Each structure stands twice: as C-alpha cells, then as structure tokens.
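Predict structure. Input: Helix-hairpin-helix domain-containing protein, 98 residues.
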Amino acid sequence: MEARGTSSEWIGCTLVTTKAVAMAGPKTREAHHAGQVVDMNSATVDELMAAGGLSLAQASAVVEARPLASWREVARLPGFDPETIGRLKAGRLEIRTL
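Output follows.
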C-alpha cells in the first residue's frame, strides 16, 4: 500500500487526523461510477467521499464504526448532523445489513 497523505479536520472540539491509503489498482469500485447505490458497510473511503460527498474524516469514521445497522448509528458519529444525514439518505448511500 502507498500512503497518499494525512488530513486533519476539526469536528466539534475534537481534532480528527486520518491517513489516506491507496491500494493497488483502481481507486474506486464500479458501483459509484454508474450512479448506483453505494452501501455504507462495504464502500471504501474514496467511494464514500465520491458518492456521498463526505469529508475524509467523515468517511473514515464510517469505516471505523462498521458494521452499521441504521442511520441512527451514523448520526452518532462525529460530523454527522441531521442535515448531513438527510442529504445522505436522499442521495446514493444506503445501509445494507445481513
């Protein structure tokens, strides 16, 4: 894996620092290119950022919190206010559970 950089973002009173990592091969899967729905429980950080318009810190928080069972769980993550949750629900992101 090749490191692409480090990003810091203030969420409330907490500084969240994340490190982006690129895998060999395409940076994203085909699902988000075709305008299809993207599952928050299986999407990569890049897919979450592209399909949902999430920041690096938000996408990383989603990946770290998996598995997610509901939007209520997403709302508890740092940086996810009611407006953001509403935008995500109306967009191409969904939460698939087993």
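Residues 25-94 form a domain with the DNA polymerase; domain 1 fold (CATH 1.10.150.320).
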